[in-house]
Specification:
globular; alpha+beta; four-stranded mixed sheet
Length: 530
């Protein structure tokens, strides 16, 4: 029979999940309350998921360099909703609830009372959305954190109990594989996990258990990898996956990066890692204070697990040369659980009254508004502001004449036009990614050839890709002057629009909001291609 205390915890659990869903509605760019997610990377992955759902094989028939598990997330979003962003909203919200779930289990392991667990665990998913590196949402780092926190929980359990069940070790191995096949530069935390386990078992001379642990870990890692191999081998795309995900990623990004000596490169890691901590002083102070509290209160296992995991996650992620703001997200992952524990421990020690939880909920509700300036650029559905991707999609719908249109992003990454209209994914390269032409000429040459031969029905062209100086989009001469003359020879501008964006994040904080301006071009019928 359920007693009064258990009923209270159930109600509080429902309230916490409701608050988390409410925060997702208010702040996620994919929320039904907004016109769309303008982040180019999430739109590119949505395009891959949409194409895959229609039978187009990633890596073999359409190009994007992220991992197959990441594409599977976006395959699921398109099963939920093939157009718009509701599917992405559902997947992101479930992921946030998953982060809350793992944190709650960790707090239970650390002897936090159920009622306190429920509320303290919210700081992890909410703190994630409130971080500038979250941007608009939908990144590999965001989805990798579910697997990271699951593994974090089991490693904390191992350090406390000195052993794990085979199923738990298999889960950790499976999680490592999931992140490896999402984006392998995010695997740093698992290097930390493995080092911790090896150190403990070797120090204790538990050789048989060590061998069993390694075997179960490999079963988990190999199991998911085998599933991925089986699918891509069955569609004759395994070699394509290996070429794109490893060869292209490593060669193209390395070729476009800076070539310096080892010492200079190591020192170069310090600044981009520190930027995240400096931009979020409250997060940094909370993290340091929580670590000190864990050390003083005899939670040494939590202290070392957090410190090693955070360090390894940061080093591997930033070593990859992709020092974009959203990389800091994977560093934040292992930072937030120890903050959640410190809050819970304090609340428990001082017997915080119920009304404090209401105040805490209100703070959480406003936290993303304060911490993540990117959320300020989301366009509400009730706004009269024109959302360009939607406007472009409507134009194509009105002029498609009963056929499915083809579209290519001529000089930048996907802006999500095909979330609002039916696009035929015929072309292997449907966009120009952030690879340089020198690093990866195949993509640039392919897209240039499509334009030259007037293959796509429509092109999208960024007017201020390298210079955010804005022009009057109603001035047709000024707009045409910004477009490559070779493109205007084959295509004509039919619509224009702008999207708010945030500039790069420096030590002083996020730059002011800028406008990315771009146009839709329609193929001139005089040069009609087949």
């Amino acid at each position: 029979m359920v007693n009064q205390s258990q009923k209270r915890v159930r109600w509080q659990t429902g309230g916490a999940i409701f608050l988390l869903v409410l925060i997702a509605l208010i702040y996620l760019a994919a929320s039904p309350l907004f016109k769309g997610n303008p982040w180019v990377d999430s739109n590119a992955m949505l395009t891959i998921g949409q194409a895959w759902q229609r039978g187009v094989i990633p890596y073999k028939e359409i190009f994007e360099q992220r991992g197959p598990v990441m594409f599977f997330y976006y395959y699921l979003t398109n099963l939920i909703s093939p157009y718009g962003y509701f599917g992405l909203f559902v997947i992101e919200t479930l992921n946030l609830i998953g982060l809350w779930f793992w944190t709650k289990k960790l707090l239970a392991l650390l002897n936090i009372k159920p009622a306190v667990q429920v509320w303290a665990a919210l700081i992890v998913p909410v703190g994630l959305v409130a971080n500038y590196s979250f941007e608009h949402g939908g990144s590999p780092e965001e989805f990798a954190l579910f697997w990271l926190l699951g593994s974090f929980y089991f490693l904390a359990k191992f350090l406390q109990t000195k052993q794990l069940t085979p199923a738990a070790v298999i889960f950790v191995g499976f999680s490592a594989a999931a992140v490896f096949w999402i984006k392998y530069s995010l695997l740093g935390a698992w290097i930390g996990f493995v080092l911790i386990v090896l150190w403990q078992l070797i120090r204790q001379k538990r050789w048989v258990y060590l061998l069993k642990t390694v075997a179960y870990f490999l079963i988990g890692f190999g199991g998911l990898t085998l599933i991925i191999w089986a699918y891509f081998a069955s569609v004759h795309a395994w070699n394509d996956l290996l070429h794109v995900y490893f060869t292209v990623n490593m060669s193209a990004y390395a070729a476009s990066g800076e070539h310096h000596g080892l010492l200079v490169r190591v020192l170069g890691l310090i600044r981009p890692i520190l930027v995240g901590f400096i931009v979020h002083p409250f997060l940094t102070v909370s993290f340091v204070a929580a670590l000190v509290w864990a050390y003083l209160k005899q939670q040494r296992h939590l202290f070392w697990l957090t410190l090693i995991t955070t360090a390894m996650a940061a080093l591997l992620a930033y070593w990859s040369l992709l020092r974009y703001p959203y990389i800091f997200l994977i560093v934040v992952g292992p930072m937030l659980p120890v903050i959640a524990w410190a809050l819970a421990d304090l609340a428990q020690r001082f017997r915080v009254k119920s009304w404090w939880y209401l105040l805490y909920a209100l703070v959480l509700l406003d936290l993303p508004n304060v911490g993540n300036i990117v959320t300020h650029t989301n366009v509400p559905v009730w706004s009269k502001q024109v959302y360009p991707a939607q406007a472009f999609g409507r134009y194509i719908d009105e002029h498609r004449q009963g056929k499915t249109a083809t579209l290519v992003y001529a000089n930048f990454i996907d802006m999500g036009v095909d979330r609002y209209t039916d696009i035929n994914h015929r072309y292997y390269f449907f966009e120009q990614s952030n690879f340089t032409k020198k690093a990866f000429p195949a993509q640039h040459n392919y897209v240039d050839d499509l334009v030259k031969k007037q293959k796509p029905d429509y092109l999208v062209f960024d007017l201020n890709l390298t210079n955010l100086k804005q022009i009057d989009l109603n001035d047709h001469k000024a707009v045409n002057k910004k477009v490559d003359p070779a493109i205007l020879d084959k295509y004509q501008v039919v619509a224009a629009g702008s999207t708010k964006t945030i500039g790069a994040v420096y030590v002083t904080g996020p730059r002011k909001i800028d406008q990315v301006q771009y146009v839709l071009l329609s193929r001139k019928e005089a040069h009609h291609a087949d």
